[in-house]
Write a structure and sequence with these properties.
Elements (H helix, E strand, L loop, with lengths): L3 H25 L9 H23 E4 L1 H27 L4 H29 L4 E4 L4 H25 L19 E5 L4 H12 L3 E5 L3 H4 L7 E3 L4 E3 L17 E3 L2
Helix pairs in contact: 1-4, 1-5, 2-3, 2-5, 3-4
Length: 256
């Protein structure tokens, strides 16, 4: 691993990943404080701990034979974790434009890194199995710093994902609605909106869910009406209709 271009691309990857973690995950999105992002945090933790191994090996060792094959396997696993993370993010939250752009740049840069690193690893894989010490000056120092950051944020994400949240009974959310009413709920598939919808349905109110994602709305507690740009359905298993109830939705509750 002596290519200056490869090390430069790795440094750019570390910088973009650090920006994504600190600015998006910690400051703007505050993922560690959102119980709904538990699965995303688990994926982030697993990926961070894989990066610890990669940073330390690339910065201080040469992996030959079987060890080179193991490093390539780690790179493949990282790709699958990232793909799973993309799916989880799209299903659980709306990404800011800057985060989506940053993720695209990370994917492009990672592809360039693989194009340069994989041929070297393949060559090493054909040699006798061994781990050889090999340092690269300032690049090795950067790898040590990156590994330390990956450990810190990986363990933090793992801890946040395993944190148990005690929720108060949801029936108190609709105690003020003494008589049966028709209620329009926006943001019903989010953490708060999901509990509010459940409380309204349990209390016997007629609920209209305004959603952009029918697949996520289908996981809500039935029965409820689902309204979107294209169609309106009655959210009861095995039953559907094509028009909203004629009664106006008197209260409107936004949880977006």
């Amino acid at each position: 691993m002596t290519s200056t271009l490869l090390w430069t691309l790795i440094a750019i990857q570390i910088a973009m990943a650090a920006f994504d973690t600190i600015y998006h995950h910690e400051i703007t999105e505050r993922l560690a404080w959102r119980p709904s992002q538990r699965h995303e945090l688990m994926l982030h933790a697993a990926r961070s701990l894989l990066y610890v191994v990669l940073f330390l090996v690339l910065g201080f060792l040469e992996a030959h034979g079987l060890f080179a094959m193991l490093i390539m396997a780690v790179l493949v696993v990282e790709v699958f974790i990232t793909l799973a993370d993309f799916i989880e993010e799209d299903m659980s939250r709306k990404l800011p434009a800057s985060e989506r752009v940053n993720h695209t740049l990370l994917a492009i840069n990672y592809g360039a890194i693989l194009a340069l690193a994989v041929p070297v690893l393949l060559a090493w894989a054909g040699e006798p199995t061994a781990l050889r010490v090999a340092t690269h000056g300032a690049w090795s120092a950067l790898m040590a710093f990156a590994a330390f950051g990956a450990v810190v944020f990986g363990l933090r994400d793992l801890s946040a994902a395993q944190r148990r949240t005690t929720l108060a009974p949801s029936d108190g959310l609709v105690a003020a609605l003494s008589v049966r009413q028709t209620v329009l709920v926006t943001g019903a598939t989010g953490f708060i909106g999901r509990r509010l919808t459940q409380a309204l349905v349990t209390a016997g109110h007629q609920v209209i869910v305004l959603t952009r994602d029918p697949a996520k709305a289908a996981t809500l507690m039935p029965p409820f009406w689902r309204a979107s740009r294209s169609r309106t359905d009655f959210g009861r298993r095995g039953s559907a209709t094509a028009s909203l109830p004629r009664a106006c939705a008197s209260p409107a509750m936004s949880c977006a």
